[in-house]
Amino acid sequence: MKMVLASKNPKKLEEMAVILSQMGIEVVLESDVGVDVEVEETGTTFEENAALKAFAVMEAAGLPAIADDSGLCVDALGGGPGVYSARYGGEGLTDADRYRLVLEGLQGQLDRGAKFVSAICCAFPGGDRVEARGECPGVIGYAPQGENGFGYDPIFFLPEKKKTFAQLTGEEKNAISHRGKALEKFKEELEKYLTAEGGNQKKSC
Ligand code: IMP
Question: Looking at ligand 1, which residue's alpha carbon is closest to its atom 8?
């Protein structure tokens, strides 16, 4: 099956393409099918935003489109930056500016609990969708560590690994990350969808 990846974040594309290709899905980029859609992420949940992106690209490309909406939810910041992770602190900031803002917001705070969340939505021409969600719990460190990954990876510490996401290889991160888990769940849901009689009912998890 051919599927358009509805994302312009090259690091996210890389992570998703690796896992989707292992599922036998032929991954094409928006640019490969002559599509360039700017979607306003007006949803208040990761699920809503993933669906907005997937449906917009599916409609523009006329092919199944898959989108991930993801972010970092920090307990002591009331679950923020959450759906605003990509825009935290406003326009024009770098990833490092944004994670420094999180570190500043947690100064003197002993509760460092956090999780990454990924909501995946695949939209099919005709209007069906397959959805899945994955979460990865961790804690916010006191200083950035590691060079790999993107976004908030350098401050997201995994106590069981004694490393941040940015200190893991891509393969190690995919094995435990919110996006890796959401894609694993997505694989199960997609298989159910494709084998369902008629394959035309809405499936979600
Ligand atoms: P989206 O592209 O609107 O889903 O924005 C997701 C934002 O959440 C990214 O720009 C990052 O700031 C953050 N984010 C999501 N997943 C990750 C991850 O795996 N590592 C680090 N930051 C992430």
Answer: 71
